[in-house]
Amino acid sequence: LTLPKEQETARKEEQKVNIHLPNGSWPFFLILSAISMSYLIFNFFSAVKVERMGLPYEAMTWIILGYSAVELLAPAIIKRIWAAAYFKAMVLLLALCAVSFCGIFLLDSLWCSILLLTITLPLSILSVLTDELLNEHVDHHGLEKHRATVLSIFSMSRSILEIVFLALSAMIAEGEGNIAFAFIAAYLGIAFLITLLWKKLEGTFRNTL
To answer: If you write DSSP's letter for every residue of the chain in order, what string do you get?
Structure first.
């Protein structure tokens, strides 16, 4: 005979096995990997833009201090965004980041230095809002008890996408690092369009456009 305790254990193990990602989850992989890749490409190739602008390499120190200071504004801005507007803000921030990286790619002037100083602010806000919406997505589908497992799946899948796209961007950027900014701008643009369509077609969140 199977003891009640053993039955309970078996039922818990079965529930673990049956955990699956809810419908409409896949765009999160794209958005999360786009955010991570944006930071990586920005950190790796900012020096390329400094050189193209004709500034001394030491100027990178001031740019790092500058965007670090600007990024501190993120918590105050996030507090002013209503929870019901998180999705709309996420979509707009994806578009803003795509346009900003496109500007960094195209410009080698003072405007480019302004973009370098400010780009991490929308990226930081976008990262926080995406995490909030991902948690809401998990709760909406009744997976709050398995939050850690589900988020781990998202993290692993995001890492796989990052490896694939970073390898691709490295091949594209070989010999001319500036092109990496165009690559991430296109990637963010695709994430923006897919997220916009995803919301309209599936209505995943309670937040509406």
So the answer is: ---HHHHHHHHHHHHHHT--PPTT-HHHHHHHHHHHHHHHHHHHHHHHHHHHTT--TTHHHHHHHHHHHHHTTHHHHHHTS-GGGHHHHHHHHHHHHHHHHHHHHH--SHHHHHHHHHTHHHHHHHHHHHHHHHHHHHHHTT-GGGHHHHHHHHHHHHHHHHHHHHHHHHHHHTT-TTHHHHHHHHHHHHHHHHHHHHHHHH--SS---
Q: Encode burial over 144-183: b for 16+ CB neighbours within 10 A, e otherwise.
A: eebeeebeebbeebbeebbeebbeebeeebeeebbebbbb
Tokens of 124: 């930081």
**Average pLDDT rounded to a whole number, residues 78-96:** 92
Amino acid at 190: I
Please give the residue that has the higher pLDDT: either 149 or 82: 82
Q: Is the pTM above the cut of 0.90?
A: no
For residue 157, give both structure tokens: 């899948």
> Quick one: which of 39, 26, 41, 42 has its CA closest to 161?
26
Confidence at residue 10, expressed as pLDDT on a 0 to 100 scale: 41
pLDDT in tens, 43-72: 888 988 998 898 888 899 999 999 999 999
- Chain position carrying tokens 């995490």: 131
Amino acid at 79: K
